[in-house]
Amino acid sequence: MARIAVAGFRHETNTFAPHKATLPEFETGYSWPSLVRGADLPAAVKGFNLGISGFIDRAEAQGHSIAPLVFASAAPSAQVTEDAYETIVGMLFEELAWVGTIDAIFLNLHGAMVAEHLDDGEGELLQRLRQKVGPALPIVVTLDYHANMSRDACEHATAITGYRAYPHDDMAETGERMAVWLDKHLASGAKRPAVAFRQTPFLIPLFAGCTMRAPADEIVAAVAEIEAETGVLLTFAGGFPAADIPDCGPSVYGYAADQSAAEAAVNRLAEMVEAREKDWGGDVLGPEAAVAEAKGLAESAKRPIVLADIQDNPGAGGTGDTMGLIKAMLDAGIENAAAGLVFDPHVATIAARAGEGAEISVALGGKHDVPGDSPLTGNFKVICAPSGRMIASGPLYKGGRMDLHPMARLRIGGIDIVVVGKRVQAADQEFFRHVGIEPGAMRFLGIKSSAHFRGHFQPIADAVLDVAAPGAMAAFPDALPFTRLRAGVRVMPTGVNSGA
Ligand SMILES: [Zn+2]
Question: How many angstroms is it from 411 CA to the middle of ligand 1?
Fold first, then answer.
């Protein structure tokens, strides 16, 4: 049986976002385990919906032994600082030297990491590792659906596979799939597979890549079909459009024993993605129009109407504290509404000190100079201010141990706002239940998320409206001031109208 070194280093970089990912951001971890190295790693990641968690479980079940290196993950933001990147990569190499002889390396990366000093965080790490261990040692990788893939990353790895679901309910499953592939590869004694890689000539708006809607649902179904039919380890990456780097954008990549088989499968899938170019969009409303439509829909609805604040998605570099949608809800006088998560540790702390039932006069959110945004100033009633520690239950964060401390539920008008001390995407109903709000019992829900919320909230809603209020994650990439995309790539799919 094999001895496999495992590591994780994840960051999705929105190069247009206001704050960078420093080392303390990785030490905190936000929705995911905080930075951990060596023997403590397996327990820290166990039970999470993460590639590394699924990989370790499956590899151990296959009888392999695990040599843990380092795991580090930070909330999406602007560039990873040079200090953070080099410190974490340094730890990985220190641990690698420490564990001695190994038969393979597994890496849980993201695929859209940009550091201050380099555009391709994953490609650089894979290149350094390849240089260290030589051409033969298997280095296998799981990546996010939102990877901005480079040819370098594809070629330095032995094999890579990515998530097939957005919302990413399949992160751990993707790690398991990689473990199964590696087990077969090691047992067969086969040589390093050939790789094929093709970039899509247009960017896909983040929300439009959701695999609960067309055409992404058809594309990910085709990935599994073509893989089953041809044996090519095949991935469609939707790309992460808020990155001003040459390799920004969707891609298709595949690994097979035979170069022509890999090329054929990749081209077949890439042509399906490109043939649907005009369909990679969708309707997005301004906050006032969205709230007006939601009020109309609510008259005949039996379940909540969800207003998705898709431009302030902390899962894509949003600050998590813009107030445009919540102000529009308040101005429209809607009742029986909940909104969140608003990242404002200062206000959450004030609320906790004031205590349940107190009235506080504060400026909530709007503290990151996002254009067009400002705090919501007023009197809020503190409904409660609990610990912030809970277990997530939705498809994205399932089983994840969350600590959103300090946390408070504040009421203003007919809206209850969930305020948190960690910048976390509102993709799980437990974030609301923890402060006593049953999401399914509300008439309106304002949710700060681009698409991950759909996994847990779409099934309980009568309608979901995508709303473009001020935020650091532009709904449509044609709003972004790109200067460094590769020649020929279109910032929007032809035929998709952002209204810009
Ligand atoms: Zn993603």
Answer: 32
